[in-house]
Amino acid sequence: MTGFFKVSGSGNDFLALVEVPEPAPEAIQAWCRRGVSLGADGLFVLRRSADGVVMDYFNSDGYPADLCLNGTRCAAQLAFHLGWAVEAVVIRTGAGTVAARRGDATRVTLELAAPEIPRELVLDVGGIRCAGYGVRVGVPHFVLPWPESLDRAPVDTLGRQIRHHPLFPEGANVNFVRYPDGHRMEIRTFERGVEAETLSCGSGILAGAAAGLHIGRSALPLRVSVQGGFELEVGTSGSAWLFSGDARVVAQGTLLDGAAVSPPPPAWS
Predict the structure, then answer these.
(1) pLDDT per position as a tens digit, 236-246
(2) Which CATH superfamily, name and number, covers 2-113+247-260?
């Protein structure tokens, strides 16, 4: 039996384990499978350290990713919930350290380095010309400015194809982004490792904000609407970027043996 917390960051949901060894990929895959087990977009293990906490993050496919910013806000909120920190905590991730500050039981602000300068990329995807921007925010992202309403964006179809484009040997998160005005952004993301659209992607938000600034379509502070219905904010403090948004601990429980049962998909899928 394994104790867990369920946490959510603007609709991006995770299983959180505390002070335990890293689970096997097969266990993570089973636990994160929706409809069969508890279900989640990913899982992280949180441990105390001399200078804060350490977060090891895994996508729902069972394999590690260097950074998940919605997950990082949730890791900070869990550290506050556990009494490991009161108002601020430093989180060590695979992509470096991030400082976190508690707003309340539902909101956390991260302070981190500004993203790299976006690279203009033009992809041919099944004969469709996709002009966008490559940005690495801990993990690879492709930002595709979308001129129409995002409700018509082909996130699952075109997003899936771009995610596997040969230009991205590691795969990429694919962000369909619209900038309604200079201080607002709307975004939908197809996430690698989850292999589906998620309700929010934190690193994708920073990638979209960086692309918007680069092409002169947006400026900070920036209010960001995501598929989960939440609004997040990207701002600055000196040379650092601030990323604020929903992060909450929603449940605590025990994973029983039945949670690890994960039958293969049917032959027709």
Answers:
(1) 999 999 999 99
(2) Diaminopimelate Epimerase; Chain A, domain 1 (3.10.310.10)
